[in-house]
Amino acid sequence: MNLRINPTLVLTLISLPLAGCMVGPDHVRPEAAVTDAFKEAKGWKPAQPRDTALPQTWWQIFNDPKLNELVEQVAGANQSVAQAEAQYRQAQHLVQSSQSSLLPVATLTGQVSRFQAASGQSIAVPGIRNLFGLGAGAVWEPDLWGRIRRQVEANTDSAQASAGTLQALILSSQATLAQNYFQLQTLDAQKALFDDTVAAFAKTLEITKNRYAVGVAGKADVVQAEAQLESARAQAVNLGVQRAKLEHAIAVLIGKTPAELSLPASPLLVPPPSIPVSLPSELLERRPDIAAAERQVAAANAKIGVAKAAYFPTLNLAVSNGYQASDVDTLLTMARRYWALGPAGAALTLFDGGVKNAQYQQAIAAHDATVAAYRQTVLTGFQEVEDNLAALRILQEEIQVQDKAVKAAEQAVALTINQYKAGTVSYLNVMTAQTVALSNQQTAAQLKGEQLNASVLLVKALGGGWNERLLPTKDEADGDRKWTDYLILPVDLLGFGQK
Predict the structure, then answer these.
(1) Residue 358: which of 308, 312, 313 has the closest Cα?
(2) For residues 48 and 60, what is the distance between their CA atoms, to the nearest angstrom?
(3) Which helix H or strand E contains 99, and what residues bound it?
(4) CB pairs under 8 A, 24+ apart, for 376-382?
(5) CA pseudo-torsion sign 429, 435, 436, 438
(6) Distance from C-alpha of 357 to C-alpha of 354, rounded to nearest angstrom
(7) What backbone phi and psi angles, to 5 degrees, belong to 137?
(8) Does 478 score more than 70 pLDDT?
(9) How are strands ordered across the β-sheet holding 314-325?
(10) What percent helix, strand, coil does the chain show, rounded to 5?
């Protein structure tokens, strides 16, 4: 088949959109409230790491090998992350779909028919006839006003936003795992505390029984000591329920069933790390959720151009070339050839009841909404950093005071037990002193856990080790297109085995 296509004509047609204008505003990053320094960062002088930014593997600053092992599984095994990754790939293919609209649609047609003309129909040869046809054609809509290019721009920005959302989810899941891990260690520390307390209460009970045996203590003292001991044992057992739930949550975060994960008891021994806090302005570049919100603004801005381009006329160009004959032998001869070239149609809407205006105003309102969402995300980011800076500062002061309270309470217990042995105080004084000591020790363990929890939340608020440079570029956001991506049929149906 001799299908001749003028390459000069093709290049001319394809270059038409490049010469056309693009209606609609160009994106400009919205202004957001940014302060010169964090309010709660006064006097904050982190010693390690010395870098002004967190490392990408931020969890390693806690120096806990088991935590490192668990967190590193999140990105590859967490099912919520897998879902977000698939949605990002979906957004990439949406970009490719919109890019395809810039190219012509080519078709190949074939025809085989046998017919008989109706009575009275004017034909050269009456009777039953055959008709064979073979042709190729292409239809193309030049993007004169930038509607398609704005849609490509909007889809590309949305794909970048999807990538930012994916990274924000990974960071959130990693931080949640670290929080659960440290909370589990806090429970282990409390369990160790209760084990020591149970041993101490058992010793006190033995002393009370001995005093009762020689007649210097009443039966009530023995009963009270037994009740106190069993109460401590019950509280120790109750910690197991909370620990089991945390262990199950950690398993799910790394894509495992609870039955597949068992963490040995590990009391809270990790000291809180020094966390580098950068300038507030850098927060805009280091939080993936802020980057995603900004990309959503860009996408909404491009959609204004799409809506505005709908006001302008559309033009379709078509070219066709083929053969038609009544027998196969003469089908591919020049005498049976036909061709056509020219506008397939042009349209301009004169009246639509205000539909296009409503869509245009809707696009503007949607853009304004994304700008407000972006600014709110920035403000929330600053709030989270300030909250956790304040929490770490206040918790450090509280821990120092609480440690003094623990030492005083432990000393009071020792003195009271000695006084009880000497018969100068009742057993009620011993119970009171031991209860106060246990309460202070529990509070101290909880405060250390809260301190590590606030450290994790501060790392998350600062964006972890993420940076805006890690956001896919516009070229990367449309995916790595292979030649098979331009085929009509899915490659798996053609036997190429592409997933």
Answers:
(1) 308
(2) 12
(3) helix 79-100
(4) 377/289, 377/290, 377/293, 378/32, 378/33, 378/34, 378/283, 378/284, 378/290, 378/293, 379/32, 379/33, 381/283, 381/287, 381/289, 381/290, 381/461, 382/33, 382/35, 382/38, 382/280, 382/283
(5) positive
(6) 5
(7) -155, 165
(8) yes
(9) 105-116, 128-140, 314-325, 337-347
(10) 60, 10, 30
SS3 83: helix
List, in order, residues 6 or more apart from 365 with CB less than 8 Å away.
Answer: none
Burial class (CB in 10 A: 0-12, 13-18, 19+), 96: middle
pLDDT digits (tens, 9 = 90+) for 117-136: 665 555 555 667 788 888 99
The residue assigned the tokens 């008709």 is 131
Give yes or no for residue 202 having a pLDDT over 90. Answer: yes
Closest CA to 64 of 233, 182, 168: 182
Nearest to 177 by CA among 86, 93, 73, 295: 73
Read off the pLDDT band of 499 (50, 70, 90). Answer: very low
pLDDT digits (tens, 9 = 90+) for 392-430: 999 999 999 999 999 999 999 999 999 988 888 888 999
pLDDT greater than 90 at residue 367: yes
**Strand pairing category for 128-140 and 337-347:** unpaired
Interstrand relation of 105-116 and 314-325 (parallel, antiparallel or unpaired): unpaired
What confidence score (pLDDT) does residue 281 get? 86
Residue type, 342: G
Closest C-alpha among 205, 216, 202, 203 to residue 423: 216
User: Would you say residue 3 has pLDDT above 60?
Assistant: no
Contact 9, 140 (CB under 8 A): no
Radius of gyration of the chain (CA): 37
pLDDT score for 340: 87
Q: What is the mean pLDDT of the chain?
A: 86
Mean pLDDT for 271-299 is 90
Q: Phi, psi at residue 114, to the nearest 5°?
A: -130, 125
SS3 218: coil
Report, as an integer, the average pLDDT of 253-275.
89
Euclidean distance between CA atoms 74 and 63, whole angstroms: 18
Joined tokens for residue 19: 């010469």
pLDDT at residue 52, rounded to an integer: 63
Polymer length of the chain: 499
How far CA 68 is from CA of 72, 214, 278, 325, in Å, comes to: 6, 58, 24, 74
Mean pLDDT of 276-280: 83
Query: Where would I find the beta strands (DSSP E) of 282-432?
Result: 314-325, 337-347
